[in-house]
Amino acid sequence: MTTLGDRIREQRIKKGFTQKQLAELIGAKHNSISDWENNKSKPDSNTIRLLMKALEVDANSLLGYDDKESIKSEAAKLADNILNNPKITKMLSLLINMPDEDLSLVIAFAERLNKQNS
Fold first, then answer.
1. Can you give the CATH number for the domain in which 43 is found?
2. Cβ count near 84 (within 10 Å)
3. Residue 92 belongs to domain spanning
4. CA gap 113, 118 in Å, rounded
């Protein structure tokens, strides 16, 4: 699976930029580009916006959400977790035919429980 750093490097090279040139374009330090590309750190959301503009790519491409194989793999993992957890399977069977109003109550209750356990 390609990482954010791999995609930054790939797009930078496609545009013909050196790490130093890209850093200058977005107002970052040269070593930041290297750190991102080597997956030592990740850019913050504002920097990702600057990278998108400089590299002329959309967020889906840069963040890897257009990578169909990764999406399939993540979906398969999620499905596996759901299907192999009897409590989740039981909960889904109870929720599937529940009216929207009741679903909203269940969601609100689950969110409240989740906050209490955080």
1. 1.10.260.40
2. 9
3. 68-116
4. 9
